[in-house]
Design brief:
The protein is an alpha/beta fold. The chain is built from eight helices and five strands; from the N terminus they run E-H-E-H-E-H-H-H-E-H-E-H-H. The protein has helices spanning 18-29, 46-63, 81-84, 88-91, 110-124, 145-159, 174-178, 205-213, and strands at 9-13, 33-40, 74-77, 129-131, 164-166. The protein binds zinc ion.
Amino acid sequence: MPSTDEPATTGLLLSGGLDSAVLLGQLLNEGQRVQPFHVCMDFLWQREELRAATRYREAVGWTHAKPGQLLPLVALEMPVADLYGPHWSITGRETPGEHSADEAVYLPGHNALLLLKVVLWCHSHGVDRVAIASLANNPFGDATSAFFESFEAALRLATGGTVRITRPFERLTKRDVMQRDQSLPLELTFSCLAPVRGLHCGRCNKCAERRQAFQHWPSGDPTPYAK
Ligand SMILES: [Zn+2]
């Protein structure tokens, strides 16, 4: 029987990028026990992202977690190549460049696809909340309060369960996130749409966003870009 003063477990979508990496640090600092998830979706950057999520989780487990507080990463498959077809996220053709608008990196139904299996996993393993590091200025329909509330309600109807979807960063910008905890090993994260030999390309929309984000990091940008 688990003791009653055992902390509740929070599921966390850990993409391997900056925002969810910072959120993992915050949940651990708050004393929550964390079950991290990575959802594998066929994207061109999938392998690098999973590798980053794995090594970041491992590093933070040593430096920022008490024994037993950070559970092993669970990787779930949600392949989308059959659905997305010729989309740039699968083919690498016409990848949004460094001067493209945020709207250019839209991945159809991304948050719904990310959350579906994770919420169902949590439901069947007795975890009653899932955190996602969605930021205030996310421009997409599947990052709105209305979407998250409706999706949570639909999955409750589907399962008869009570898993809640929480968004601790819903009012924060990237700059706020980068100023949250400067002890985190963010150099281990990965956020690029077109990796070159495992490195950040330095030319895509996400690399530009990353460079900008690290302007708010005291020691600067530690990323070795291919260009
Ligand atoms: Zn890139």
